[in-house]
Amino acid sequence: MNINNYKNLISHTYLFNEFSPEDILTLFTRDYYKIKRYEKNSIVYLQNELCNTIDIVLDGNVSIQKIGENGDILTIVTYSSGDIMGGSLAFSKTNQYPMTVVSDSRSTILHINRELILNLCQSNRKFLTKFLESLSSKALILTDKIKFISMKNIRDKIIEFLTYEYYLQGNTVIKLRISKKELAEKFGIQRPSLFRELKKMKQDGLIDYDSSSIEILDITMLKKV
Prior knowledge:
alpha+beta, Jelly Rolls, four-stranded antiparallel sheet, 23% strand, elongated
């Protein structure tokens, strides 16, 4: 696929928003990029596959997943249009994907050669700053995720999620923007386990829920932030 079809989108991504669409055409010569399309549920990178490019999701959704010994799928992080993948791995001495990267929907990904990133970091201070900021943000997200999945108690994970969404949405009725199946994957548990704990919390008078929302009945259970 030709970069010309995506020049406007790329110039509006965080990493390249200092460049015009015409600049994008100049920067991305044939040797510096590939654009690939992935079907839903197809594997973008296998665990332990070498990371030699910095990738930008042009459309669709892509997630990093780990499959546990009992078959549980744990979604570590999900990327959508404009998000960057592989920024730190591509320049690591052990540049292997620690987990599998899967396309959650029909997705298009821009694979950028490391040499282009190095050249831009050396020649453009603003680009270098944005690239470092992107790496730092990803590191913080990963740290928070590791802290979250280290919780052994399913109820703790639910309360952590509800606390975050309560302060984000500003309402005791939490509108679910993902399915309960996807929520269970984020928790690294099976969907029946999630439903069992939600049912227990409802019986305890902590929450009520339906297919699209969870209502917090006991505000005191939320974590202090």
